[in-house]
Amino acid sequence: MPALIALLGPDAVANDADTLAFHSQDLMTEGAIPLAVARPGRTAQMAALVQFAKDRRLALYPRGGGMSYSRAFPPETRAAIVVDFSRLNAIRSVNRVDGHVTVEAGCTWAQLDTELARHGLRSRFWGPMSGGTATIGGSLSNGSVTFGSGDVGASANSVKSFEIVTGTGAVIHTGSDGAGCDHPFNRAFGPDLTGLFAHDCGALGIKTAVTLEVEPRPALVDGLSFASNDFGQMCALLRSVAEQRLASEIIAMDAEVARQNAGPPRLWADLKALAGIGLVSGNPLTAVRRMAHVALAGRGFLDKALYTLHFVVEARDADERRSRLRAIRRLAGDCAEIVNTVPLATRANPFPDLPVTHPDGRRMLPIHGLFAWSQVADFHLAYVQWKAARAQALAARGVTVAEFFAVVAGIGILYEPVFYWADSLRLFHERRTPGWLRASLPRHAENPEARALVQESVDQLVALMADHRASHFQIGRLYPYQQRHEEGRGELLRALKHQLDPDNICNPGALGL
Ligand SMILES: Cc1cc2nc3c(=O)[nH]c(=O)nc-3n(C[C@H](O)[C@H](O)[C@H](O)COP(=O)(O)OP(=O)(O)OC[C@H]3O[C@@H](n4cnc5c(N)ncnc54)[C@H](O)[C@@H]3O)c2cc1C
């Protein structure tokens, strides 16, 4: 510890029990308690920390906002340092002419969006729903979706260059900035080294900064919602809207997940929420109409059908908005249109202080698979059969499973079963429960039987997804990756890991490496 403090400074190192425990937990997992949490404030300090870890044979577990839930950063050994990026969070430069921003890894998506808004700009992929806490370094190491994904696709597509500290302590830049151009304007000057580090879980190196492509903010935002009882009909509509790039965010969910996302009923009476819904319209008359519409509709729409589908539509002007809305309605055919509260509320406050439990205090755990459109129906059938076969066992332990879907343009559909069960909360939940919910959140007793059943169910579903050729984001230590590679490709990946991190100190075990 004194040596680490001497290296980084006293404010940059913590080893009190509370901090160590909190930084070793995610939504589901309690990792080994590390020796310290280190907070480098500059790239050079990160490189020095790598050398420090190499010399002492310690593992480094990078942790951004800690909002992933696939055992992606909780340490597996006590001979470990958790790297926290909260002091490495500056926005280094905004370059409007060349269309990019360079930002340090610990900056949150909310922080970046607020700064870019001052320039009338936005990152092309602009964050997950957890972006109030999730960091740019964490999301781009995980692989993330949501804001912009109906058009741009996954988070990696927005990146022009990474600044990486490798496991040897070297600092490299992966775009044209690392290839003699002195400027990160071209991601792939020759082979795409940037892509190599995108969605790598930090197993190939530590991101200290990222250059993202930016675009002008849209003038108008609107939304449409529909209800359907038919999975095939839902997928057909989601796919055709994505194919034509008509919506910037495209999500769908069953009624249980919709209620969880909506929060407690009083939220919908909250004038601030309604005002936000009005504000995204960009026009006072439309704002009043929208607020009245949403307030009158209340939350009843959440129970309308098996699935609700939600599209956020952006436009340069009223003509473009009308044209996009008309096109989506035409594609929707006989799907029932419902009140558009979800898309409007999503954009009224894109980065809210989200609960990490069900509002009734039950624990939650989402998992997911990414499917090609042509393969999702087969998986859905197998999933429904799995759910029917497990129904009794799950009910006996009070475990429920609901489904959320998100479209990732250019890839397909993210299918996300979410488990809920009554159980005691961990330090992670206590700290991450938003203020508006903390006092009223019901508490449940320790429930190891239900938790074990959830874990067993997760393992079964992960295997079922692999059988149905799913791919994944936030691979961490949950989803099989290295194990699924064809032979030559697996060797290539191992060789890269060895070259970049010969002592295996960068998030050892992530990606199966
Ligand atoms: C309520 C809630 C809502 C969510 N909504 C979404 C959503 O809309 N879309 C979505 O895709 N996901 C969502 N998630 C999942 C998760 O929040 C995202 O994947 C998010 O991008 C994780 O970012 P983070 O900074 O918290 O990363 P962390 O969880 O801290 O880390 C993720 C991975 O990146 C590595 N890492 C972190 N920082 C670095 C770095 N600087 N260099 C190298 N490796 C690093 C870690 O070791 C780990 O492997 C949600 C989660 C919750 C709990």
Protein architecture, described:
The protein is α+β, with helices and mostly antiparallel strands. It has 4 domains: about 1-85, 2-Layer Sandwich (Uridine Diphospho-n-acetylenolpyruvylglucosamine Reductase, domain 2); about 90-215, Uridine Diphospho-n-acetylenolpyruvylglucosamine Reductase, domain 3, CATH 3.30.465; about 220-350, Alpha-Beta Plaits, CATH 3.30.70; about 365-430 and about 440-465. It is about 35% helix and about 20% strand. It has helices at about 1-10, 15-25, 45-55, 110-115, 135-140, 195, 230-245, 255-260, 265-270, 270-280, 285-295, 320-330, 340-350, 375-395, 425-430, 435-440, 450-465, 485-500, and strands at about 15, 35-40, 60-65, 80-85, 90-95, 100-105, 120-125, 160-165, 170-175, 205-215, 220-230, 250-255, 305-315, 335-340, 365, 370, 400-410, 410-420. β5 and β6 (about 100-105) form a beta hairpin. The longest helix has 24 residues, at about 375-395. It is globular and about 65 Å long. The two termini are about 30 Å apart. The structure holds flavin-adenine dinucleotide (FAD).
